[in-house]
């Protein structure tokens, strides 16, 4: 295990997601946010897990160009339903079609995470799989949910941390935060391995 990091080590979340920011806030560790601009299009014949891992690592490495002294968290999530990748719907109509295609089916969420130590040039990464089954609900319920919560900026068109939990029949994962987009169980292990102290009285 590497030696402890200096007390003032910069910790950066390489993401513009308010959901990941809220999750990282739970750890009560000071951090910055730098959102990298990347083309997130999957490569030809790339598996969902490979896409998520590649993008999580690419985000962290891109931020490292601006912050070569920092510990950087990169994350990405790819959802898969019966062989088809699900992106962010962007609007109500697309979200309704997405939920209609998912109801009664099992969806796989690949939540990739990496911690990149820009000073040591070391990378830790993992893909956390979450399997979710949606309830077979009628169109009017799906439509009503979307109008209430408007989850148009999340892959899968449902916020499990909010009212979207009522759409779900089951969730299988060893990390309940992975579905929201930042697997905290894995992240805290990576931060400790990088030498960051999590329980410091301030």
Q: How many H/I helices?
A: 5
Would you tell me which CATH topology applies? Answer: Maf protein
User: Which spans have pLDDT < 50 for at least 5 consecutive residues?
Assistant: none
Under the CATH scheme, the architecture is Alpha-Beta Complex
Question: Structural class, from secondary structure content?
Answer: alpha/beta
Largest sheet: 7 strands, mixed
CATH class: Alpha Beta
The total domain count is 1
Q: Helical content, roughly?
A: 25-40%
Task: Report the C-alpha radius of gyration, rounded.
Answer: 18 Å
H and E string? EHEHEEHEEHEH
Give the mean pLDDT. Answer: 92
In one word, what is the shape?
A: elongated
Number of strands: 7
Produce a short descriptive summary:
Helix content is 28%, strand content 26%. It has a single domain, classed as Maf protein. It is of the alpha/beta class and 202 residues long.
Give a structural overview:
The protein is of the alpha/beta class. It has one domain (about 10-195): Maf protein (Alpha-Beta Complex), CATH 3.90.950.10. Helix content is about 30%, strand content about 25%. The protein is built from five helices and seven strands, in the order βαβαββαββαβα. Strands 1, 2, 3, 4, 5, 6 and 7 form a seven-stranded mixed beta sheet that branches. Helix 3 (about 90-100) crosses helix 4. The longest helix has 17 residues, at about 50-65. The chain is elongated. The two termini are about 25 Å apart. The mean pLDDT is about 90.
